[in-house]
TrEMBL record:
<dbReference type="Pfam" id="PF00107">
    <property type="entry name" value="ADH_zinc_N"/>
</dbReference>
<dbReference type="InterPro" id="IPR011032">
    <property type="entry name" value="GroES-like_sf"/>
</dbReference>
<keyword id="KW-0560">Oxidoreductase</keyword>
<keyword id="KW-0862">Zinc</keyword>
<comment type="similarity">
    <text>Belongs to the zinc-containing alcohol dehydrogenase family.</text>
</comment>
<keyword id="KW-1133">Transmembrane helix</keyword>
<dbReference type="InterPro" id="IPR013149">
    <property type="entry name" value="ADH-like_C"/>
</dbReference>
<protein>
    <submittedName>
        <fullName>Alcohol dehydrogenase zinc-binding domain-containing protein</fullName>
    </submittedName>
</protein>
<feature type="domain" description="Alcohol dehydrogenase-like C-terminal">
    <location>
        <begin position="158"/>
        <end position="272"/>
    </location>
</feature>
<keyword id="KW-0472">Membrane</keyword>
<dbReference type="InterPro" id="IPR036291">
    <property type="entry name" value="NAD(P)-bd_dom_sf"/>
</dbReference>
<dbReference type="GO" id="GO:0046872">
    <property type="term" value="F:metal ion binding"/>
</dbReference>
<dbReference type="GO" id="GO:0016491">
    <property type="term" value="F:oxidoreductase activity"/>
</dbReference>
<keyword id="KW-0812">Transmembrane</keyword>
<feature type="transmembrane region" description="Helical">
    <location>
        <begin position="150"/>
        <end position="171"/>
    </location>
</feature>
<keyword id="KW-0479">Metal-binding</keyword>
């Protein structure tokens, strides 16, 4: 079958290419209706700021090969099942489903790899499930406790979803740091108690004994130093950012050395060893669906761009000529 796939072809270059695929008897064919761009990860690829010899994602079958150009990428597609294989129940035909699949007009997938879209969730909201699942994973890894002081660096889509989940906890304070005023406004609407620009950080965070829990979600390596600066004794820093090939210099001087600060990476592809005893990917996904219903993710959508004009979406995100949050690609 023919389709159009978005391909990253070189740094700062993308194009729609016609490709073909052959569905297996145990697969269905999905016609894409909407897909969400993950600006953090996809901009690293778009700019050529990743190690190209790394697998695209070993946990997602649809992302084959490595991160060298040209490549198909993306992992947030929602569409309608238009065809079922000979070994698949006809009940799947006509269902609206979510898939961790690259940006393309149609694709084949095993029913086991699809998530049926609940009737009370719109396709656009469902396309943002990976962002909310990542936020769910970040909160699981951070283990916030009652009365804690929490600081979040970065109020992009992942940061805002994380803020929304954290706001449901009985924290003492939830402080957000981001350079963009419109993102700080979103953070307050989602439950942040206080928001600051990085320039206000030295005088704005007034916490006796420092923060208990800090999230670095900005994607900017320099922010990791700021994150450790606001910690107190026995604090935890959860790093959800992927810096790609961008280097980071971290001050691990006296305060860090004496305060027993823990810096921990958090990534949604795998469950943390501390949660694997009781949590599974399916349980986390179910929890993320509940959070998706509770969060006002529709307010995070800043742009809807036709898939036929997909390259302009990446130029918009890269050049930031206007405020952007969640960019959706729409398919007619």
């Amino acid at each position: 079958m023919d389709r159009h796939s978005l391909q990253f072809t070189a740094p700062h270059e993308t194009e729609r290419r016609q490709t073909t695929f052959t569905p297996a008897d145990d697969e269905v064919v999905v016609e894409t209706r909407v897909s969400a761009i993950n600006a953090g990860t996809e901009l690293l690829i778009y700019r050529g700021d990743v190690q190209t010899d790394r697998p695209a994602d070993e946990t997602i079958d649809a992302l084959d090969g490595d991160l060298s150009f040209p490549l198909r990428y993306g992992y947030a597609a929602v569409g309608e099942v238009i065809k079922v294989g000979a070994h698949v129940s006809s009940d799947w035909r006509g269902r609206t489903v979510f898939a961790f699949n690259p940006h393309e007009s149609r694709f084949a997938a095993s029913p086991d790899d699809l998530v049926p879209v609940p009737e009370d969730i719109t396709p656009e909201a469902m396309a943002m499930l990976p962002a909310v699942e990542t936020a769910t994973s970040l909160v699981l890894d951070g283990r916030p406790r009652i009365g804690e002081r929490v600081v979040v660096f970065g109020a992009g889509v992942i940061g805002l979803c994380t803020i929304g989940v954290l706001a449901s906890f009985p924290l003492d304070r939830l402080v957000v740091v981001d350079p963009l005023a419109e993102r700080r406004d979103h953070a307050r609407r989602l439950g942040a108690d206080e928001t600051l620009s990085p320039a206000e950080l030295s005088t704005g965070v007034d916490m006796d004994d420092g923060a208990d829990l800090v999230y670095e979600l900005s994607g900017q390596p320099d922010a990791l130093d700021d994150a450790t600066d606001v910690t107190g004794y026995d604090s935890r820093v959860i790093v959800g950012s992927w810096y790609g090939t961008k280097p980071t210099t971290l001050d691990l001087g006296t305060d860090f050395h004496r305060n027993h600060v823990t810096i921990e990476s958090s990534q949604v592809s795998t469950l943390s060893p501390t949660t694997r005893g009781r949590w599974t990917n399916a349980r986390r996904l179910d929890t993320a669906l509940d959070r998706l219903r509770a969060l006002d993710v529709a307010s995070l959508v800043s742009h809807r761009i036709p898939f036929t004009d997909a390259p302009s979406a990446y130029r918009l995100l890269d050049e930031r000529t206007e405020p952007t949050l969640q960019v959706l690609l729409t398919y007619s």
